[in-house]
Amino acid sequence: MHKALPCTRGTPESTSPRAASVVILHLVVWFWSLVVPALILTACSLATERGRARYVLRRLAEEPKDLPPASVIVPVKGEDEGLRENLAALASLDYPDYELLIAAHSANDIPPGVLPPRAKVVLAHGADPVTGEKIQNLMAAVHATRKPSKILAFADSDGCVRRGWLRALTAPLAEEGTGAATGYRWFLPEPANFWSVLRAVWDAVPAGMLSAGDNRFAWGGAMAIRKDTFFEAGVPTYWTGAISDDYALSVAVRSAGLKIAYSPGALVPSREHISARDLWHWMRRQMMITRFYDSRQWWPGLVAHFFYCGAMAASIAAGCQGHRLGWWTLAAQLGPGMFKGAHRAALARAALPEYAGWFRRYGWSHVVGVPLATWLWLAALLSSAFGSTIEWRGHRYNLQNRGWDKRV
Question: What's the mean pLDDT in 343-368?
Fold first, then answer.
């Protein structure tokens, strides 16, 4: 595979054919030890795409009939891009019986002029130095929900949900064995800029992991659970001392022997923009939270991206040295990855038909941006391996101060 290395001046050992053969052998071993696992991982990731597509399209076509009274809780902490529109969307859902609760630490956290008429405000004034402020606000809102509500639904203030969001999100809860239901976010920055679109490509990867059956995590910006399940599974106990509301709830549900169902109709569009610096801090924070709260997901991610990026580098190096096999192996890696990016975008477009124009203009970014996003995944994962402190909404948290991990 490798051409003979040119002779260079030096010791007799460095210029001997035997020494050159040893170097070539080492390069060959390194090349295949990176490329083969990467190709296997790529093939395995493709194997689930057809089944995921069937599941997503089936869910999108269903018409939920069981629509119990619900409470929708959204935490607010200062200004978010489009906050007024986002809260207005949550106040005008196509759902027969629900209440909207805006949860905050204090009144100063709610910008003036953003509250919709039908919203109920809950101020937590939490003072727990260990539990995340967001969780304290959510818990106060849970206790303030009306008695008739059978379902608790959680949203984030930086997403603009569709009118059918709550119908889609609650639908899986009617199925036996389902403890929680989750949607996910999809970044649709308009007007688009490079870093905001790159974040959209990067963040689409977890969306591609959600499918039929039991899912490893629920996402806090589109998360629903029956109120009785919330307490029977001990979610308040798991939330005590936690920073991440969704990871802690996910552990509680799975520990109770229940599954987390994915609802693609609850995909949440976000029009937020981001700078290069903020994108880096945002990615690192996401991966640090994953490392501390779900290391069984973080480690495979790190290993997989090590092989993906290592194989890319090895293939490019071999190709640049004149070995056509290097370009073939590079294509064998990038082609399926870019196809998956296009497939993720196609399924997201099916879930968000109102944004078809955005996908026509920028959907290509989910194809060509995949290789760069893969390297960003590796960089964020490696960076998150160090340290235990994050900054989030004006607070610094030590992720080692978790109260619930001893009970898992």
Answer: 96
